[in-house]
Design the sequence.
């Protein structure tokens, strides 16, 4: 019997109109011809609610005496005997009087649902078990009557009965909820505006969560992969500082507010080296974001705001979370900062959140490694000091006579400053320009580019040499800093790559996406070919428009062996980046080989499974054909015997038995051979539309007469099956049920339609099977309990399930109420959408609950 459906009217507080709405729904259903009764409704003396009970059939209540008083409770037995289509049960969280059938009313409702009766009920938000503490903190009242959340969540429909606090208080003041002597106390205590507003918010939020669950179930059942605008994808910009943990948690809270929210944490390092990020802190933040269900990304980019925005747009993000700048106030003279730049350039599609934290305006904890030889701004300052500095100094020294030695020291200081700022070339220019000025203005003869005193020549030469030496040292230090930063960046990227391998992140497309993100490319593809003259094929791709024909068409081509290459488009990478790219390319080749080895292993496993099934089918011959063979042999031996004079009637009966046994042998062998070919992939079931009542009776020929009751309505929809496979499946199930049924107890074979499926149930009253053994009984060579060897080798149920799954159906075992085992064979109704035969289809959870 199909399980009944539960509809619940949920309210924020007493008096919002839940019972009235339930009774109004009952009147609408009665007008449509539905058999609807009132199992239990309490009107609490409210006139309008009492009026709605008129015209509705009410099941008499059960009277129970408790502590000298008589109480009326719902009579579950009377409702079950009445067996209406719909029963109205008020106050789902009600606690029954001791001596009742169940302790809680929701348990009574569960019995009605199990009997196939639809139930309409009511409950207030304060009675949900998980909200007990919250409601007590709001109202100061602890709810003693509660209902488990899962009971309400499993309802097929939940309808919120909503009313503003002001309207509810007016209804209370008019005497429509409580008696006049209780109105003032209620308005002053439980029904205060603040209490009602908080309870209303709880109800709205709880129902909203339930709506999200319904949406997810719908999208899952209908295989909707496209996001319907309700998903938030949030990018968190990390600097490696301690504030990153705060940003990740904040982003996770934002993501929780939207269904299917996703958090992507991204750390951007410069292409020529790392900034002040602590590897240990980054590892902690990576673990945190992964624990919260997000992903961690490492991107290389010189312009951090632009790289962050490119990444966010590339992943279709809707929000960006950044921390307030750690720079001190005076540092803003060098620019607005990353946060302000991102907010300015984000455009209308991206929301930018600037989150405060404890490290705001405290400066950076570690010195910034500039990376590169020298920044562009620093080189410009070097040239400005190198060229303008000597000229300004010459003007100043013309006004003050300090002597040639002091003049040379001052010019040398300017050259050293130019070297420290701009490196070698600005220092050389400053030394050359300063030497000319010293010669022209301060060495005799003045205002001429000649030197009369040889000592001055030596001094100017020393000055020029010192300037060059200082500039060379600064340039060499910049080179070493650049190299160290490059090596450090490469080591972190390679460490990240190795970490992915250790964590099992071996998907080829995911790895190519990492390559694209790391090098800020538009696309990445792994191309391969079988020989030097064979065309290239794409083994994996990431990004938009990857090169698919030849690696030479890409901006970057990294060979991997003789017949494989990693191709990237977007920009030309410097030679220094190709070493790291080579490591990614080698790992991509390893991932591809591993995937193919896994595919080969899966194929080998499938072949092994096929061999196992073929072996089982061969063994099934002895199991399923032993009886007809024995019958044929016995009949033939009897006919050949000279000791007995058989009459014509006896001979005809023996010949008829031989013919029936031979027909059955032919039929069963044909089915077994079809199953064997099916398992090896050489044949598919012959699916056609047929009525169940045409096939099921044919499957009962192998069991004794009078051992089976058949209840298969002729009004059932047609099913899409292979008739031969269906007949054999049902025959195996019936034979198994008859084998284990007690003497004198018949096996019931029934069929019914549920949604887009038709279920055939084989019900026995035998010893049953424990829950932990229900799956094992479908495995080959499994015999339950102390079944004798002559009962078979245990392949009947295995063959039945194999045939069922081959037709796109399912076969499961359930307990028979009152003892025994029920085999449920679920088949696709004709015209319904389902997976192709041979793949198997599991019954959905809503259908399982409806059984």
Sequence:
């Amino acid at each position: 019997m199909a399980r009944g459906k539960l509809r619940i009217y949920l309210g924020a507080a007493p008096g919002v109109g839940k019972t009235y709405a339930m009774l109004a729904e009952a009147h609408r259903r009665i007008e449509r011809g539905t058999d609807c009764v009132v199992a239990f409704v309490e009107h609490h003396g409210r006139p309008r609610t009492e009026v709605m009970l008129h015209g509705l059939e009410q099941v008499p209540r059960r009277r129970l005496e408790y502590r000298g008083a008589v109480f009326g409770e719902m009579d579950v037995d009377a409702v079950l005997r009445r067996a209406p289509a719909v029963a109205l049960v008020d106050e789902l969280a009600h606690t029954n009087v001791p001596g009742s059938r169940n302790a809680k009313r929701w348990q009574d409702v569960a019995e009605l649902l199990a009997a196939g009766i639809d139930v309409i009920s009511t409950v207030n938000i304060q009675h949900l078990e998980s909200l007990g503490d919250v409601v007590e903190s709001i109202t100061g009242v602890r709810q003693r009557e509660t209902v488990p959340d899962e009971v309400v969540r499993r309802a097929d429909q939940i309808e919120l009965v909503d009313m503003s606090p002001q309207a509810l208080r007016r209804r209370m003041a008019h005497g429509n909820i409580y008696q006049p002597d209780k109105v003032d106390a209620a308005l002053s205590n439980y029904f205060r505006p603040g209490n009602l507003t908080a309870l209303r918010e709880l109800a709205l939020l709880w129902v909203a969560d339930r709506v999200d669950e319904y949406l997810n179930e719908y999208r899952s059942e209908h295989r909707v992969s496209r996001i319907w605008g309700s998903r938030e994808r949030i990018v968190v910009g990390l600097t490696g500082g301690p504030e990153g943990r705060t940003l990740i948690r904040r982003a996770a809270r934002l993501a929780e507010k939207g269904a299917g929210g996703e958090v992507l944490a991204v750390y951007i390092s410069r292409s020529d080296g790392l900034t002040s990020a602590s590897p240990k802190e980054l590892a902690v933040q990576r673990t945190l974001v992964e624990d919260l269900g997000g992903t961690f990304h490492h991107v290389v980019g010189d312009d951090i705001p632009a790289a962050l925005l490119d990444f966010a747009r590339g992943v279709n993000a809707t929000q960006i979370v950044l921390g307030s700048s750690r720079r001190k106030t005076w540092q803003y003279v060098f620019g607005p900062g990353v946060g302000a730049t991102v907010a300015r350039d984000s455009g209308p599609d991206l929301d930018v959140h600037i989150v405060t934290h404890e490290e705001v305006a405290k400066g950076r904890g570690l010195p910034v490694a500039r990376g590169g030889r020298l920044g562009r701004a620093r080189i410009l300052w070097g040239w400005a000091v190198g060229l303008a500095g000597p000229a300004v100094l010459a003007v100043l020294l013309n006004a003050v006579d300090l002597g040639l030695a002091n003049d040379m020291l001052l010019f040398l200081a300017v050259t050293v400053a130019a070297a420290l700022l701009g490196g070698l070339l600005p220092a050389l220019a400053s030394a050359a320009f300063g030497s000319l000025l010293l010669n022209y203005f301060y060495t005799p003869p003045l205002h001429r580019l000649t030197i009369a005193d040889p000592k001055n020549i030596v001094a100017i030469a020393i000055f020029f040499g010192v300037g060059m030496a200082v500039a060379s040292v600064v340039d060499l230090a910049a080179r070493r800093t650049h190299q160290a930063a490059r090596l450090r960046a490469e080591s972190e990227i390679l460490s990240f790559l190795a970490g992915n391998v250790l964590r099992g992140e071996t998907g080829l497309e995911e790895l190519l996406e990492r390559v694209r993100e790391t090098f800020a490319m538009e696309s990445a593809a792994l191309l391969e070919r079988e020989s030097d003259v064979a065309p290239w094929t794409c083994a994996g791709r990431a990004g938009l428009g990857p090169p698919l024909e030849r690696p030479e068409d890409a901006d970057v081509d990294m060979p991997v062996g003789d017949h494989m290459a990693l191709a990237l488009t977007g920009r030309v990478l410097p030679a220094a980046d190709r070493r790291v790219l080579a490591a990614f390319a080698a790992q991509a080749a390893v991932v591809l080989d591993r995937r193919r080895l896994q595919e080969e292993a899966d194929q080998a496993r499938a072949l092994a499974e096929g061999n196992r099934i073929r072996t089982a089918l061969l063994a099934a011959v002895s199991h399923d054909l032993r009886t007809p063979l024995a019958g044929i042999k016995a009949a033939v031996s009897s006919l050949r015997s000279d000791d007995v004079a058989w009459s014509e009637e006896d001979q005809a009966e023996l010949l008829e038995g031989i013919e029936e046994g031979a027909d059955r042998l032919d039929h069963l062998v044909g089915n077994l051979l079809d199953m064997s070919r099916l398992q090896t992939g050489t044949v598919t079931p012959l699916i056609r539309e047929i009525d169940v009542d045409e096939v099921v009776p044919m499957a009962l020929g192998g069991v004794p007469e009078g051992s089976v009751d058949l209840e298969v309505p002729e009004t059932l929809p047609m099913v899409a099956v292979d008739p031969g496979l269906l007949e054999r499946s049902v025959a195996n199930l019936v034979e198994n049920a008859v084998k284990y049924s007690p003497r004198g107890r018949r096996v019931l074979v029934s069929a019914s339609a549920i949604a887009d499926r038709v279920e055939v149930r084989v019900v026995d009253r035998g010893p049953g099977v424990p829950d932990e053994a229900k799956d094992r009984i479908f495995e080959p060579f499994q015999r339950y309990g102390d079944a004798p060897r002559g009962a078979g080798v245990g392949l009947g149920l295995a063959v039945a399930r194999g045939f069922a799954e081959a037709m796109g159906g399912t076969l499961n075992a359930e307990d028979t109420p009152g003892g025994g085992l029920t085999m449920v064979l679920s088949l696709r109704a004709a015209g319904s959408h389902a997976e192709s035969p041979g793949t198997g289809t599991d019954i959905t959870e809503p259908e399982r609950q409806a059984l």
Notes: The first strand starts at residue 6 and ends at 11. The longest helix spans residues 454-502. The two ends are 6 Å apart (CA to CA).
